[in-house]
Amino acid sequence: MIFWLGISLGAYVVAMVLLGVFAQSKIEADEDYLVAGRRLPLWLAWGTLLATWFGAATVLGASEAAREEGLRGTILDPFASGIALIVAGLLFAGPIWEMRLLTVGDLFARKYGRKTELVSSVVQSLSYLPWIAAQYLALAAVLTHFFGIETRVAIIGVALFVMFLTMIGGMWSVTLTDTAQILLVLVSLVVLGIKFFTAIGHGSMVTGVSSTWEQTPPELRTLLPEAGVVAMLAWSATWLNGIFGNIPGQDLMQRVFSARSSTVAKQACVLAGGVYILFGLLPVGLGLASRLVWPDELPQGSDGHVLLALAEQFLTLPMICLFAVAVVSIVVSTCTSALLSPSALLAHNLLDRLAWFDQKKMLTNRLSVIFVTAASLPIAFATDEILGLLEEAVAVALVALLVPFIAGVYGSPRGERPGLISIIAGAGFWSLHKVASVLLSSGGDPPTGIISLVEMLPPELTGVTASLCGYIVGQRTSRIRTESPKV
């Protein structure tokens, strides 16, 4: 199997490189590199949105969460994340596209000013680094598992490959490779789902699906929270984080900016969100159904991955190779998108302030990709626990950027102060709450009073509330200003 898997991965790498080289021919100006010249038709805009969201967390993580925790464990992915795309399409894609921006930093520059642009771009850029490092680790784990490559060497090889795909053609390269890869992933998931449910349904896929649902314990078949105020608050915070934490993200908005029109941007988001939830049900269903095959624990050699175990047992050798390549491709598509986003902010909103870089935009864009790649490598080398930081990376955008982002789209901010206070207050109170929770959890006696409230409330709710209060304070203490012409 290793031989044929190597051939399959080699063919995949060659195909992606050729697509990247082809994408380079479409790059003539800064706008082409950052937002594909604002020329993406619906099928490409939809494809790159879906591929950006439909990553390893959806395919591998959701199946494992469903097996262990039931539907409640999959709230963040795929349900809340899919709804986030729909919300973005219905409420934000249209007005954001009409602003003709290149980055989210441009929104903060136009609505608040240069200082807020700087702070917001730095906050968002840093939040992407652990996410990128986690993708390096996920890809390196595949290479190590199948081919025995030393982990550090695999990480470097993966980083160079993803850097090349992102750097050579920018948004055009990411879009074309994303769309090709998401088709491969969806086909592989559908084939695995059909094979598995048909097998456990004794020749009938419908029977397999219905028996899975009937034999799953009732407590694992609900999205509703457990009883109690603490459980309800944690449940609400998960939905809040999943739906709104991604809204101000550069990776989402960069695809909105790249659409051919505001109508295409809206349709692409809504379509991608609906398809995301629909196909996201496959790994969720497979995770629940795996309990029927392995009630106690997964077989050895699966490394705890439900879908890998199912693929090895129910797919033929060619299909196992196809599925393994699909797993690699979903991580690559997520990683290229994550890499391009902070690179765009670094090049356009940070380095652009320096005269030398402003006169060499294309070179600056490509140098930024190299810089972000290098900056995320030490994090990947440092620890394999970086995967635990991914949800917190989304939480940073939620608590620091959501309020000033929405106010920038629909409101009339009065100068720098509302945006700056909102970002600092949201991130600051969220950080303090996180630290306090850790310190309290390591204490001995159960806390009481206000300390108990700190433990009970999710930090995300504290951060968003502080950000909103900070914005209101900033508005009340600022004079009315006109929008900055910079974009």
Principal-axis shape equals globular
Q: Using the CA coordinates, give the radius of gyration.
A: 23 Å
- Helix count, per DSSP? 20
Low confidence ranges: none
End-to-end gap: 52 Å
The CATH homologous superfamily is called Sodium/glucose cotransporter
Q: What is the succession of H and E elements?
A: HHHHHHHHHHHHHHHHHHHH
The helical percent reads over 70%
Largest sheet: none
Number of strands: 0
How confident is the prediction overall: mean pLDDT? 86
Give the strand content: under 5%
CATH topology: Sodium/glucose cotransporter
By secondary-structure content and strand pairing, the structural class works out as mainly alpha
Q: At CATH's second level, what is the architecture? A: Up-down Bundle
Supply the CATH class: Mainly Alpha
Number of individual domains = 1
Structural account:
With 487 residues, the protein is mostly helical. The protein has one domain: Sodium/glucose cotransporter, CATH 1.20.1730. 78% of the residues lie in helices and 0% in strands. It has 20 helices and no strands. The N and C termini lie far apart (52 Å).
SSE topology:
Elements: H1 2-24, H2 30-35, H3 42-53, H4 56-69, H5 75-98, H6 104-111, H7 114-147, H8 151-200, H9 205-215, H10 229-244, H11 250-258, H12 262-293, H13 306-314, H14 317-350, H15 355-358, H16 361-382, H17 390-410, H18 416-441, H19 449-456, H20 459-476
